[in-house]
Amino acid sequence: MNISIHNKFKEDLVKKEFEISEMNQKLESLSLTCSEQLEEINKLNDKIISKKKEQNLKEEVLNNEITTLKYREVEIASNSEKATLKINEAITVLKNLDEKKNNLEKQLANVQKDREDITFDSDYRKIFFDDLNKKINELSIKIKNFEQEKIKKTTETGNSKLDFLLKEKMIIQVF
Question: What is the mean pLDDT of the segment spanning 48-68?
Fold first, then answer.
């Protein structure tokens, strides 16, 4: 019985060893499969890490571009403010120039009115002096005519007095 137990135990042991061997083979197969899967997982992890690095680089580039855009936005806003100030200054200058232009136009209108007034006064004076000269000439002619008539009358009167005196003298001489 001992032998049978021993044989049985041996048989069981051989079976168990066979089972263990099969299990070891299965475990080795599983281990190989797991190893292959681990390699694939590692490759996938490497790809993920690579993709993550690419994404990080892209994010860094995007962040740099965003930062650059923010600086540009600030610069544009600053330039816009400067441009607005310059536009406002230009508008102020234009308004001042318009005011000066309007003042100069008013002054020009006043000068033209003064010129017209002066021209009118000058024309009026010319007409007045022309009329005055006419009157002076007429009076001068009248005075000359009067003087000529006076001379003529004086001459006539003087001649008639002379004639009268001569006649009287002759009459006296005759006597």
Answer: 95
Structure tokens at 5: 């137990």
Average pLDDT for residues 61-78, to the nearest whole number?
Answer: 94
Which tokens hold the place of 13? 């042991």
Calpha distance 16→10 (Å, rounded): 9
Q: Name the token pair of 151.
A: 């001379």
What's the residue count for the chain?
Answer: 175
Q: What is the DSSP letter of 3?
A: H
The span from the CA of 40 to the CA of 47, in Å, is 10
pLDDT over 90 percentage in the chain: 45
How many of the other CB atoms lie within 10 Å of CB of 147? Answer: 10
* 120-126-129-131 Cα dihedral, nearest 10 degrees: -90
Distance of CA 77 to the CA centre of its chain: 18
Task: Look over the chain and give the mean of its residue pLDDT values, rounded to a whole number.
Answer: 85
Query: DSSP letter string over 79-124?
Result: HHHHHHHHHHHHHHHHHHHHHHHHHHHHHHHHHHHHHHHHHHHHHH
* Residue 91 identity: I
Residues 175 and 101: their CA atoms lie apart, in Å, by 106
42: Cα separation from own chain's centroid:
66
What confidence tier does 42 reach under pLDDT thresholds 50, 70, 90?
very high
What is the pLDDT at residue 157? 56
d(CA 163, CA 175): 18
